[in-house]
Amino acid sequence: MATGRRPERVAEALGGEQAGLLATALDITAPDAAEAAVQAAVDRFGRIDVLVDNAADFYAGFREELSSTQVRARIETNLSGPTNFTRAVLPVMRAQRSGHVITVSSLAGAVGVDLCVACSAAEFGVEGLMETLHHDVEHFGIRTTIVEPGFFRTELLVDASTTYADGSIDDYAERTAATKKQGEEMNGRQPGDPAKLADALLEVSGLEQPPLRFVAGDDCLAAVEVKAEQLLDQVEASRELGSGLAHTDAS
């Protein structure tokens, strides 16, 4: 089953109507719509073995320039959306005592970067959702994987897919212009091949013990390695003041 706000476009992108394809409408921010989509899949195929949740959008801007409404909207789509669909599919997988929930986060879910505060707020939330969900459901035979892709050659950076903050503050203007220029120059030249990522995800979905995190793309692998080193450095920097804070009567 493949879902989208306009299922006819989904079907067209996948080669048209065919016996093994069910294209259905879905607004991932609506819990009732997620439940209806899951029921449609069960009615058609009898079970759900793998959920790949790739719904997201991109609002770029510094926190002061983004309205609270814009930030909430990103969290509603990029975090509440996966939460809704995951909750809808879990009863099916739990009854089967098997299943694999794959949720696509991003580089912005692992590392904070300029102009991505709204997306990172949501994607960091997705990371926490999926890491905790792993503990909730692993004893039902349900596996979970967070996908952290770097820059792949999709339509993410085209004007129709990227929205910049409505506000404009002089102190941020130079950095905003530089980052927008970088994005425009990268569009169509991103290093990652989406077809190769799709093949890799098929392999991950077939693993008996899939990774909790799948870091995809050389750029993201390098960035996450740096982040891991920084976290270890921060642990050591905190050790002197951060240890020995227990009550004196603690055993």
CATH structural fold name of the largest domain: Rossmann fold
Secondary-structure class:
alpha/beta
N- and C-termini, Cα separation: 54 Å
Write the CATH architecture name of the largest domain. Answer: 3-Layer(aba) Sandwich
Q: Please provide the ordered H/E string of secondary-structure elements.
A: EHEHEEHEHEEHHEH
* Beta-strand fraction estimate: 5-15%
Trace the largest sheet across and list its strands: 3-5-6-8
Q: What is the assigned CATH homologous superfamily of the largest domain?
A: NAD(P)-binding Rossmann-like Domain
Shape category:
globular
Q: In CATH, what is the class of the largest domain? A: Alpha Beta
Task: Work out the helix count.
Answer: 7
Task: Provide mean pLDDT, rounded.
Answer: 88
Count of DSSP strands: 8
* Regions with little confidence, pLDDT below 50 for 5+ residues: none
- CA gyration radius, whole angstroms: 20 Å
